[in-house]
């Protein structure tokens, strides 16, 4: 197993632990069925209390993977299987040995903090090219046979889960579950963008060779020279273009203060970078 794959599985593990914490300490004790398989499990647990939410998630994932194999083929990877069953195992472990109780009984606080915790966990899983399976599988089946967008299919499935929560636990709790679904979808995108954000940098400096060498040798990143002409000076100039992580940019900025404090630098955020040194296109 390569170091990158090992790192991905470590990240996925941290992600599903956060999702499990959100479910066991915020959602389940307050009957907030915030969509997905875990939301379905919370509703079913109300009627079949002798089966814990962790066990119910495990059972439903097995059923969904069988259905996926029949209707979709084996197009779900090892990371998705690991995340799906890992989540249910961690939840079952918490329920048996840690006996989780609600951190707060305030539904607003439970909804907000549970959703944020879950969204961070899900973003970590997605960022490692994984998925927790579950209702994603239902959405893919609807996409295949009804030709609806996967995003819309997920929204429909989650809406039905929150509808069931409202019917089971009351309208107020149902609305909190729906609010969690909406916030969760927005928050996951924001967190993923935050993980992938880099800095696109252009530099105009007479000491361009020293800067380029620092970027390549000290930071281990590539850079490109773009030939230009100064409008005022009419002189040929070299413009350096590079993309760096945030910590790498701080190192470059500190270096520039010493080498050429008069350099002209522009910086902009880029939300996804594909290619050598970053996420490979083949991995997406």
TrEMBL record:
What topology does the record note for this protein and the membrane? Answer: Multi-pass membrane protein
Where in the cell?
Answer: Cell membrane
Question: What is a single cellular component term in the Gene Ontology annotation?
Answer: plasma membrane
What residues form the membrane-spanning segments?
9-26, 32-48, 55-74, 80-98, 107-126, 159-187
Q: Which of UniProt's keywords are assigned here?
A: Cell membrane, Membrane, Transmembrane, Transmembrane helix
- Gene3D superfamilies named among the record's database cross-references: 3.30.70.120
Top-level taxon of origin:
Bacteria
Q: Which residues form the DUF2179 domain?
A: 221-275
Under CDD domains, the record lists: YitT_C
Family matches, as PANTHER family: UPF0750 MEMBRANE PROTEIN YITE, UPF0750 MEMBRANE PROTEIN YITT-RELATED
Name by which UniProt lists this protein: Uncharacterized membrane-anchored protein YitT, contains DUF161 and DUF2179 domains
Q: Which organism is it from?
A: Clostridium cavendishii DSM 21758
């Amino acid at each position: 197993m390569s170091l990158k794959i090992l790192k991905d599985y470590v990240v996925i593990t941290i992600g599903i632990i956060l999702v499990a914490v959100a479910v066991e300490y915020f959602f389940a004790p307050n009957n907030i069925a915030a969509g997905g398989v875990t939301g379905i499990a919370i509703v079913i647990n109300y009627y079949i209390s002798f089966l814990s939410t962790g066990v119910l998630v495990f059972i439903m994932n097995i059923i969904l993977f069988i259905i996926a194999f029949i209707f979709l083929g084996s197009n779900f990877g090892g990371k998705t299987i690991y995340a799906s069953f890992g989540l249910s195992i961690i939840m079952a472990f918490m329920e048996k040995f840690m006996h989780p109780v609600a951190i707060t009984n305030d539904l607003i606080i439970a909804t907000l903090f549970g959703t944020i915790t879950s969204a961070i966990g899900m973003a970590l899983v997605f960022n490692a090219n994984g998925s927790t399976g579950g209702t994603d599988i239902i959405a893919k089946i609807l996409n295949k046979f009804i030709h609806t967008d996967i995003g819309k299919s997920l929204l429909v499935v989650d809406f039905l889960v929150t509808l069931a929560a409202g019917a089971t636990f009351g309208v107020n709790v149902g609305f909190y579950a729906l609010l969690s679904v909406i916030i969760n979808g927005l928050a996951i995108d924001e967190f993923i963008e935050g993980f992938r954000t880099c800095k696109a940098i252009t530099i105009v400096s007479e000491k361009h060779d020293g800067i380029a060498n620092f970027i390549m040798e000290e930071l281990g990143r590539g850079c490109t020279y773009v030939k230009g002409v100064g409008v005022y000076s009419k002189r040929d100039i070299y413009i350096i273009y590079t993309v760096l992580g945030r910590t790498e940019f701080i190192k470059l900025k500190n270096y520039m203060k010493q080498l050429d404090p008069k350099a002209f630098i522009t910086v902009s955020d880029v939300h996804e970078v594909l290619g050598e040194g970053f996420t490979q296109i083949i991995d997406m």
